[in-house]
Amino acid sequence: MDSDQAALQLCRQSDAFAVYNVSNPSIPILISVPHAGRDYPAGIIENLRLPADSLVRLEDRYVDLLARGAVAAGVPVIMAKYARAWIDLNRDEQDIDAEMVAGLDRTELPSPSAKQRGGLGLIPRRLSGLGDIWKRSLEREDVEQRIGMVHRPYHAQIDQILSAMRRRFGAALLLDLHSMPPVDDKIIPDPPRFVIGDQYGRSASSRFSELALSHIRMSGFAVNLNYPYAGDYILRRHGRPAANIHAIQLEVDRSLYLDELLREPVDGVARIAKLVTDLTQILADAVLDNDVPIAAE
Q: CATH number, domain at 273?
């Protein structure tokens, strides 16, 4: 059994994420929601240095609600259930801060990413303005188990679904759904309420990004491309435009669907969920369009 097959076997044994509408998809679109999780395993609470409610800052708070309309419409979706504080599915599995793991030598790992240096690696280490999250170091075996039981199965499932879509439809597209804090207008004039990321054209054909930008603008919202968020590991890992597997990220301003404290959903959820559902159909139509060339793999 190869590593991907083993990961998929673990997926069936894990409740760390959920998949919907993937057995016989009618469209070549998969929505990924990697930071939706609100389940906190006991190991998190026991080791917390900070108040438990501070971990909400790591969540893409209730972003899963924005994908529920798409699920109901039959769109394939994969959605995290475990909290990002347990493991961040949008980081490389080697993006580990060696100083927070007992028995791990820094020389075993690649150079730290900018996100890891800021405290937000594979397992978050600190929160800005609050300091370190954990009271004690993690055991190496614990980190390896989180990777093997959650991270690898999640990405193996995405690989399997996108590859099956590509074989069936000739192409596939991953829409990686996130939410962002409101952008400060002192930092970015006329701040965007949405951001489309495609790794500056490396993870998807520009055609799909342009369609997404156009749909959001026509819906009445300011939107940017790749700034301030261009996408991270999921786009780098799964976007292969030369093989007709594309990946774009969608960031949604939380103030569009959460209350003033950015904690609880408000009536705006329905409007934004419809926008997301409509966007998946627009992107699906574009993927199915004969203008998309089929590359040999």
A: 3.40.630.40
